[in-house]
Amino acid sequence: MRKFLILLVVIFACANLCFAFEEVFNYISSSRSIAREMPKLGDAYCKFTQEKYIGNTVLKSGGNFKFIKDKGAIFETLYPIKSTVSYSASQNKQMNSVIVAVANGNYAYLDKNFNLYYKKDNNGVWIIGLKPKKNTVPAQQLNYIIVKGSKDISNIKISTIKNGITDISFKCETN
Asked: Is 116 helix (H, G, I), strand (E, B) or coil?
């Protein structure tokens, strides 16, 4: 009975954490107000862990992440299989456009393609929610994107129409 109660408490805590993360969609915002609130983000070199949820399956991976503000992001996966994915201007352009727009405070692309949501707590932790506008290119592929951070981006959660949810956490050193 005690194990059951402990399991129930853990499940309840996880459900509340997930709900709190997506609660950002209760706070519709404008790009102007978000731009005023956001800290200036710079280049980042991080360790990342990723969980990809497809149906009942969870795929875990991790490695090194590099973000160069003018160029884009590079994920060097070290486990379970080594690989490198570059989100540069020519490769994976759509996701790169979102990451670069948030990091550079350039909301023209985001205003055109997404409804924006924003929440900031008393500890300086901010969350931006992006839901694709109808009849846009992102609406054909995405349900939503949530970006969370304080000084740097600490988490990105991406829900796609076909490939489930990807949850990426970062531990960064800022340059």
From this structure: strand
